[in-house]
């Protein structure tokens, strides 16, 4: 670690954090929990308004959360010393399980936290049918 510190200055160099800062998808952390009634997705989207975020479910039961963090408008006289917040488009996709009821999906957003609730439905187990062996 001392060598990395020497190579990259006094700051501690962490390759994963470096990648996170460059990749919008990794900067959209999302938790997925299952309750008895639903699948709940919780995404941190700090600084975004609900109008800047899209949530959709396609026919193949894939939940998609996407949007864009816009570039900030600068004054030409501004001098940036550090840029660490991720900008640009982001997209997360989750293949929903068979018991997801896609026509009842709800989404809400408060204080930069998106909560998507996908209700569950009972899935019929295929019936076993015994076949008589002839001969």
Automatic annotation (TrEMBL):
According to the record, the segments passing through the membrane are none
| InterPro entries, A to Z | A-crystallin/Hsp20_dom, HSP20-like_chaperone, Small_HSP
> In what residue span(s) does the SHSP domain sit?
21-135
Iron-sulfur among the record's keywords? no
Q: Which Pfam families match?
A: HSP20 (PF00011)
Q: Which UniProt keywords apply?
A: Stress response
Q: Does the keyword Membrane apply?
A: no
Family to which the UniProt record says this protein belongs: Belongs to the small heat shock protein (HSP20) family.
**Name used for this protein in its record:** SHSP domain-containing protein
- Species source reads Hibiscus trionum (Flower of an hour)
């Amino acid at each position: 670690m001392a060598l990395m510190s020497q190579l990259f200055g006094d700051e501690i160099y962490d390759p994963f954090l470096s990648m996170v800062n460059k990749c919008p998808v990794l900067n959209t952390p999302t938790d997925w929990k299952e309750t008895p009634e639903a699948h709940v997705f919780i995404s941190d989207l700090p600084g975004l308004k609900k109008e800047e975020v899209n949530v959709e479910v396609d026919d193949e039961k894939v939940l998609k959360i996407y949007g864009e963090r816009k570039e900030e408008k600068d004054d030409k006289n501004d001098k940036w010393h550090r840029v660490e917040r991720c900008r640009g488009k982001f997209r997360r996709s989750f293949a929903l399980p068979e018991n997801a009821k896609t026509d009842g999906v709800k989404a809400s957003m408060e204080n930069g936290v998106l909560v998507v609730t996908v209700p569950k439905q009972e899935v019929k187990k295929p019936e076993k049918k015994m076949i008589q062996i002839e001969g």
